[in-house]
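[step 3/7] fold_predict: job queued, chain A
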Amino acid sequence: MQRNNRFSTFYGILVSRPLSRLYRRWVFARLMRDEIRIKRPIKQELWDAGMRECQACGQRFSALKGAELHRKDEDKGYSVENCELLCRECHQELPGR
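[step 4/7] structure written:
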């Protein structure tokens, strides 16, 4: 039996490959938007509370855009109490990244 490369299955539904790629990109974009919607207010609240430097190395942030949100306890969700701001270098050096 010859395989048709123009179609693939997505959750048991036969769809064309270009459509499945577009759908995956749409799902990824939605997830990113939801993540930003959750993280942005927490990041802003920490910034407004005076957390203006990396909590690991002490490097000062010139703007909020340079700070990354890090959860202190990965088992808990994103909240002001469970998060801190880190620079990109320190955030990438953490275990599990």
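[step 5/7] annotate
The chain is about 40% helix and 15% strand.
The chain has one domain: 7-93.
exit 0
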